Structure formats: structure tokens, C-alpha cells
């Protein structure tokens, strides 16, 4: 199975600070069809996960544009440009290129 | 507004069975793949099952293959998860999710707790 390693496991940020979360895959996530099926979710405390970014860098409808995704192959990054209080929670990457679908272990964002 | 509402969770003994349901509304259910994703207490997310639009194709990880069965009733806009031979490690919150293919879970239910314990 593909292992997604997220770093750091915990991140502490002040309001307005920009932060990045890394997701590194044990295998390339480039599919034979040319797409890269790496996506990002946020799970706020006590809530269900919500989709933020799909296909590496595409912003899901309704998600603020302070969120952005980048990367290719095995290395991917989620960036938050100007953290807001509502951004606290656990961020997960998920890959759909290789069966079975797998999730990263999560990065917890705390607000200072 | 898309809504996914799970039901059927609870406490069950190891080796027994349980069936979860998910009622969908706010979108054309029959046009979408659907999935179950679980989260053990204080742990991360684990994909459990996916079903195609017609229900003719189903997909599972090895951890539940042969024990869990995903199904759907498009006429009722409902998704199901039949869980047999339950183990303590199946204890988790189970989420119903709309699955745009290849790992894009764009809507999630509120989750239902399943506890496997004697």
C-alpha cells in the first residue's frame, strides 16, 4: 500500500502567519492517464472532514483562496497564506492513484 | 444542499454483525459513486468501501474484504454497509461520503459510532 507521510505532525501558528504542510508518498502518484490523484482534507474539531484541494492544486468550490496546493510525483505541499482562527484542525492528504486509497496520518494545526 | 445522514451504529459483540445506513439528499444520488470511510478513536482516516453508480462494482481494502459489503438503493437514495464478523479493531466512527472517483470525497455525513466489545 502507498504510505503518505505528513510533516510536521503538529503545527502552531499565529493569526495571519503563512504555513505549509508536507505530504510525501512512498510511490509516485502520477497515474498512467496523466493525472495525479492527491487531495487535501480538513477536519475541524468535532466535525466531519471537508475537501479543500483536489488533484494536487484545484481549489474545491467554496474554499477560501488562502489555501493552495502544489507538488508532483512523491512530494506535495498544502499552503495556507494567512492563517485564520477557523483553520484550526487536522489536515489530511489522501491519494487515489493506487489501490487501496490511503490517507496521510494528519497534521494538527493549532492557533497560538 | 447536499446532506448525508448515517444511522445504525451502536455497541456490538465481537463476531457479530451490524448494518449501517446512509440517507442522501440534495443531489442526484444515482449519478455518484459513494463510499464509507472510518476513523478509530483519536486516529486518522481509513477508506473502507466504495460502490459504483449502479452498484455493479464494489471496492474494498484487504482489512475488510470478505467481511464488509457495501450496497445501495438508488430508488431510496440510500447507501448501506453490512459488517460481519466484527472485530475490536473495527471500532470507529463510520462516515458516509460522496465519492467523485479516485479519492475525491467531496461531501461527508456526520458519522456514526460503532463499538465492538464484549
Overview of the molecule:
The complex is a heterodimer of chains A (112) and B (118). Chain A is an all-beta fold. Chain A is built from no helices and eleven strands. In chain A, the strands form two sheets. In chain A, strands 2, 4, 5, 6, 9, 10 and 11 form a seven-stranded mixed beta sheet that branches. In chain A, strands 1-3-8-7 form a four-stranded antiparallel beta sheet, with no helix packed on it. In chain A, a hairpin with a 2-residue loop joins strand 7 and strand 8. Chain A is globular and about 40 Å long. With 118 residues, chain B is mostly beta strands. Chain B is built from no helices and eleven strands. Chain B has strands at residues 3-7, 10-12, 18-25, 33-39, 45-51, 58-59, 68-73, 78-83, 92-100, 104-108, 112-116. In chain B, strand 7 (68-73) and strand 8 form a beta hairpin. Chains A and B meet through strand 4, strand 5, strand 9 and strand 10 of A and strand 5 and strand 10 of B.
Series of H and E elements of chain A: EEEEEEEEEEE
For this entry, what is the oligomeric state of its chains?
heterodimer
Low-pLDDT parts of chain B are: none
Structural class of chain B: mainly beta
SSE string of chain B, helix = H, strand = E? EEEEEEEEEEE
List keywords for this structure.
heterodimer, A: 112 residues, mainly beta, seven-stranded mixed sheet, four-stranded antiparallel sheet, 49% strand, globular, B: 118 residues
Give the secondary structure arrangement, pairings included.
The complex is a heterodimer of chains A (112) and B (118).
Chain A: E1 4-7, E2 10-13, E3 19-25, E4 38-43, E5 49-54, E6 58-59, E7 67-72, E8 75-80, E9 89-95, E10 102-103, E11 107-111
Parallel strand pairs in A: 2-11
Antiparallel strand pairs in A: 1-3, 3-8, 4-5, 4-9, 5-6, 7-8, 9-10, 9-11
Chain B: E1 3-7, E2 10-12, E3 18-25, E4 33-39, E5 45-51, E6 58-59, E7 68-73, E8 78-83, E9 92-100, E10 104-108, E11 112-116
Parallel strand pairs in B: 2-11
Antiparallel strand pairs in B: 1-3, 3-8, 4-5, 4-9, 5-6, 7-8, 9-10, 9-11
Amino acid at each position: 500500500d502507498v504510505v503518505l507521510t505528513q510533516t510536521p505532525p503538529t503545527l502552531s501558528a499565529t493569526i495571519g502567519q503563512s504555513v505549509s504542510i508536507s505530504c510525501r508518498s512512498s510511490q509516485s502518484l502520477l497515474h498512467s492517464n496523466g493525472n495525479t490523484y492527491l487531495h487535501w482534507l480538513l477536519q475541524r474539531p468535532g466535525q466531519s472532514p471537508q475537501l479543500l484541494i483536489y488533484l494536487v492544486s484545484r481549489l474545491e468550490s467554496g474554499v477560501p483562496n488562502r489555501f493552495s496546493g502544489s507538488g508532483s510525483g512523491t512530494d506535495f505541499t498544502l499552503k495556507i497564506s494567512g492563517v485564520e482562527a477557523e483553520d484550526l484542525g487536522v489536515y489530511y492528504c489522501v491519494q487515489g492513484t493506487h489501490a487501496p486509497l490511503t490517507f496521510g496520518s494528519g497534521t494538527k494545526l493549532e492557533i497560538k | 444542499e447536499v446532506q448525508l445522514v448515517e444511522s445504525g451504529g451502536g455497541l456490538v459483540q465481537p463476531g457479530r454483525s451490524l448494518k449501517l445506513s446512509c440517507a442522501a439528499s440534495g443531489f442526484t444520488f444515482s449519478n455518484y459513486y459513494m463510499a464509507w470511510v472510518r476513523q478509530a478513536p483519536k486516529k486518522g482516516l481509513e477508506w473502507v468501501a466504495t460502490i459504483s453508480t449502479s452498484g455493479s462494482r464494489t471496492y474494498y481494502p484487504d482489512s475488510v474484504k470478505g467481511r464488509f459489503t457495501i450496497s445501495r438503493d438508488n430508488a431510496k437514495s440510500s447507501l448501506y454497509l453490512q459488517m460481519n464478523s466484527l472485530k475490536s479493531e473495527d471500532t470507529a466512527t463510520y462516515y458516509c461520503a460522496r465519492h467523485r472517483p479516485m479519492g475525491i470525497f467531496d461531501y461527508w455525513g456526520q458519522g456514526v459510532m460503532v463499538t465492538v466489545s464484549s
